[in-house]
Amino acid sequence: MFRIRPVLVAIAFALSATAVHAATLPNGVVYSANEGDGSISEITLSTGDVRTAQIAVIPHNVQISPDGKTLLAVGTPAVKTGGHGTHGGAGGTSTSVKADSHAEGDAGLLILNASELGQALEALPAGSHPSHVVTSRDGRYAYITNADTDRVSVVDIQGKKVIAEVATGGYPHGLRLSPDGRELYVANVTDNTVSIIDTQSLKEAARVSVGKAPVQVAFTPDGKHVYVSLRDEDSVAIIDTSSRKVIKTVSVGRNPIQLYAAAGGSKMYVANQGSDNNPDNTVSVIDTKSQSVINTVVTGKGAHGVVASTDGGFVFITNTKDNTVSAIDTSTQDVVATYSVGPNPNGITYRSIP
After folding, report:
1. C-alpha 259: how far from its chain's center?
2. Alpha carbon distance 73, 61 (integer Å)
3. Is 340 exposed, middle or buried (0-12, 13-18, 19+ CB in 10 A)?
């Protein structure tokens, strides 16, 4: 039986990139999914403290629930080898983590207590290769991309089961819910398209050709446009959601991965990861009115995940090659803090604290 294992939470301190007082940052928490060791890091912005907890999957993506009470993490169930790993067991001091594709029930969706990172509340099925997760606006359903089956799995969190498998294009990866909750846009990496899924019928309503290797999508807050990162052509496609057609393509940095709207929707932030051998360390800032790049921000090597604070005043970037998270002030485009997190951080999410 798949069991939720207890975890040890370690505490570290953030490294400030500049002499900025923590009070300038919002009263919130940022979570990063660390694929390097199967952990999640929690950054408390008001203090700069970073806590890292081992979990039972190798997380590629994390998502806060709409009510902020739970954290969803998706990935392949993990098997740890090599003694006690970071506890100094036999064979070394590091933990070896590998995917277990035969874990019972493919329990690749973990529901964690957002206030107590080490407390796993549920382990639910998520399909065989879960990559990204978002929730319905009421938080009842989780939508999870499964790259190896070309499907989006729909999980009823209350019912604790998969209720639908929706066909998409080839190798679905990043996905986002429209602001009105009626549609999911899904980036299909290998067939150069974006699938549009109707959340009522749970069927693919349309498929839009966008460009080479779309990895992630991001809505503008008004829902009129969707920006799509095109990894293999160093650009971002812009879809008009009313016509469901690409209206413009914008050149950005090398190998863009995730992207997110901020500053009231006036700017779109695009993380440029580069390649394994030659990582990029930049974030392209697109003005959503002119639909052109207005700034480039230097963060850390392998810029990958992007999320914004609730008020849009700050953007947070995972730097997967530097094992850090950068905080960008959207009013100045300056990196105001850098936090050390677990190895190879990828997905990222933000929780506001009242």
Report:
1. 10
2. 6
3. middle
Q: Is residue 209 within 8 Å of residue 193, measured between CB atoms?
A: yes
Residue whose entry in the numeric block shows the structure tokens 């207890």:
6
Backbone phi, psi, residue 123, to 5°: -125, 115
180 in Cβ contact with 136 (< 8 Å): no
Spell out the domains of the chain, with CATH numbers in brackets. 9-17+24-86+93-352 (2.130.10.10)
Q: How far apart are CA 2 and CA 104, in angstroms?
A: 6
Bridge-based pairing state of the strands 49-54 and 57-64: unpaired
Q: Which of 107, 174, 167 is nearest to 134 (CA)?
A: 174
Torsion of Cα atoms, 254 then 129 then 321 then 34, to 10°: 140
Distance CA 89, CA 9 (A): 17
Strand residues in 241-353 grouped as ranges (E): 245-251, 256-262, 267-274, 279-287, 292-298, 303-308, 314-319, 324-329, 334-340, 345-352
3-state secondary structure (DSSP) of residue 87: helix
Radius of gyration in angstroms for the set of CA atoms belonging to the chain, rounded to a whole number: 19
Mean pLDDT by 10 residues, the chain (354 residues): 37 40 80 97 97 96 98 84 31 40 64 92 93 97 96 97 97 98 98 98 98 98 98 98 98 98 98 97 98 98 98 97 98 97 98 94
